[in-house]
Amino acid sequence: MSNLTQILIIVAIGLHALAALFWAGSSANLARTGGMGAEILFPRQMGAALIATLTGGHLWSALHTGGFGPYEMVLAFGVLCAFIAAGIQGAVVGGSIRKLRAGGDEAGLRKRMAGAYRASAGLLALALVAMVIARFI
Ligand code: HEM
Q1: What's the 13 CA to ligand 1 centre distance in angstroms?
Q2: Which residues are CB-contacts of 110 (< 8 A; sequence separation ≥ 6)?
Q3: N or C: lower Cβ tally within 10 Å for the chain?
Q4: pLDDT of 5-23, one tens digit each?
């Protein structure tokens, strides 16, 4: 492995862990606050999800293209959980924020967002555990 390849992997895993943990942690927090502050954090969360996906894709292509064994299966389970979480947040939270800005019923919309954040935080916790334990399976 060349020095540059190694440096790119180190940078990617650092950014990946940082972005993914921000995404998961802020989602869990927004579930607890009933969606209060989602307007500010949601765009940053989608940015973090994008960074986690791009860096995760790079890590996969650099480290896991040799075959699809138990390690990759557990990682793929984590990736699937993360994609479902992103879909839920994009659709439910993104949609609720748009309705909120258009003057929709705040209490109902916050409740919807809190539910979406609860579900997605659970999925992101599963993704985190899968990513961390995958190498030991
Ligand atoms: C969005 C799509 C994602 C992809 C494609 C992806 C892919 C990967 C890959 C390929 C690795 C490297 C595994 C290795 O060292 O061989 C990794 C590591 C890691 N991922 Fe992800 N991941 C994603 C999302 C997430 C999410 C949502 C979290 C946490 C909530 C997360 C947390 C981690 C952590 C903590 C590591 C480092 C594990 C370790 O080295 O012990 N990832 N990910």
Answers
A1: 8
A2: 34, 35, 36, 38, 96
A3: N
A4: 999 999 999 999 999 999 9
The overall pTM is greater than 0.90: yes
Rounded Cα gap, residues 87 and 41, in angstroms? 16
Q: Which atom of ligand 1 lies closest to the CA of 82?
A: 27
Rounded distance, CA 41 to CA 6, Å?
33
Instruction: Give per-residue pLDDT as tens, 38-54.
Output: 999 999 999 999 999 99
Give 106's Cβ-side CA count (13 Å radius): 6
Residue 63's pLDDT is: 97
Q: Is the CB of 77 under 6 A from ligand 1?
A: no
Q: Which residues of 92-124 are buried (b: 16+ CB within 10 A; e: fewer)?
A: bbbebbeebeeeeeeeebbebbbbbbbbbbbbb
Distance 21 CA to ligand 1 centre (A): 10
Torsion of CA 128, 75, 54, 3, to 10 degrees: 100
Residue 90 burial (10 A CB sphere; 0-12, 13-18, 19+): middle
